[in-house]
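Reagents: none. Just compute today. Butyryl-CoA dehydrogenase.
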Amino acid sequence: MAVSFSLSPQQEQLKQVARQFAEAHLRDLAEAVRHEADPARRADLARPAFEKAVEAGFLKGLIPVPFGGAAGSGVDAAILIEEWASYSPDFVISIAGPLIALVPVYQVGTPEQIRQFVAPFLADGGAPVAAMAYSEPGGSANFAAAPPAEGVRTTAVPDGDEYVINGRKAWASHLPGWDGDGPDVMTIVCRAPGGVSLVVAKREQLAGHIEVEHLYDLPALRGCLTARIGLVDVRVPKANLLGQEGQGVELTRNAFIGSGASIGTFSVAAMRQAFDAAYRFALTEHRGGAVPIIEHQAVADVLADAKARIEATRLLSWRALDAALSGDPQALEWALHAKVFGSETAVEVINDLVGVVGISAYDNDFPLKRHLDEALAYPVIEGSNIGVRRRQMHALLTSSGYDPLAASGMS
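Predicted 3D structure written out:
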C-alpha cells in the first residue's frame, strides 16, 4: 500500500456502511446470543443476519476480484472486521470461512476447481459457509510431523477415481454446516499416500457422512458453531485434490497467513470496546470521592497506556492484512507479529482496564468481562501463539539469510 494513515473517501464510506450494518443487525444478535444457553440454537440465531450480509454483498466482498468477487485491500478488510467484531466477533468468524478455506484454491486450484468451489460464495442470497478442516481433537500443532509421530490423523485412501476420507476434526467454525450435513465447501487437511494433502469436499459429498460428536460451549465467541466431528467414509473425486499429494503442509500454512493477520484486528475490536467502557466509567464514577476517578493520575496512566497500545496494534494489523492480501513476500512475518503481539496485548490491556473499574468489572452484566473472554481466545485460535505462531517466528529468525529490515522495506 502507499503509505498513508488517513482513510480514503471510499474507506470512510465502507466504515460507515459496516458500522450501520453492525448497529442494525449485530448489536441485537450479540445480545440474543448472550442469553441463549444452547450452542446449536445460538448459532442459528446468526442466520438471518448472515443472509442479510450476503444480500448486501459483504460475502462477495471477501472473494478476490480475479476470482469473481469484490474484495478490496487489506486495510479495507481491517476496517470491516473491526467494525463488525466490535459488536459480534463470532459472526465475523462464521462468515469469514472462505478467507481460509479458499486460499489454497486460489493458490493452486485448476480453473474447474475454482469454478466449482468459489461459486457458492458469489451468491446474492442464502447463507453459504466454508470450513477449513485442519484442527483435530488430539491437537494439530505438529500436523506436519512424519512417522513415527502421528502428525495429521485424518486419512484419504484412494479407491478408483475417488478418495475415501475418514478422521475427526474440531474447532473450525461451521464444520457441521447449518444442519449437520456439512458446509457448502470443506477443505480437508488429510494424509494421502503421497503425504499431507488438501482435498475439498462439497456439501453433497459430506451429507450423511458427518457425525457431530460435540458442540463446544465457549466462554466467548459463543455464536460460532464450533464442533468436534467425525468424517465417516466421505467419498470425494480425486479431481478435488488441490495441487499435488504431499503439498498440503505448505498450502495449509499459507491459508492461515491472512487469518493470523486478522487476529490483530479482532484484538483491536475487543480493546476498543473495553476501553470505551472503562473510559466512560472513569469519566462518570466518583467511587465515593470528590472527583471522577479519571482525575487520579494512576487511572489516567492506565488509560493512556491502553490507548497507545490499541493504536499501535491497529496500525500493525493494517500493515499485516495489507501484506497478506496483496501477496507481499514478507506477509508471513507481518501476520505473525499481528497475531502474537495483537492477541497478547489485548489480554494485557483489557486486564489492566479491569483494574481501573475494580470489582464492578467482575460481573457478567458489565462488558469488560465479556471482552476479556474474547481476548483470551485470540492467543489460542488461528494457530496458537506458543504451539504454532512463535515456532514459525523462530523458524524465520533462524533461517539462512534472514534480514531483520526486509519486512519494513528498510533493507
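Residues 129 and 255 are 17 Å apart (CA to CA).
Action item: order primers for follow-up constructs.
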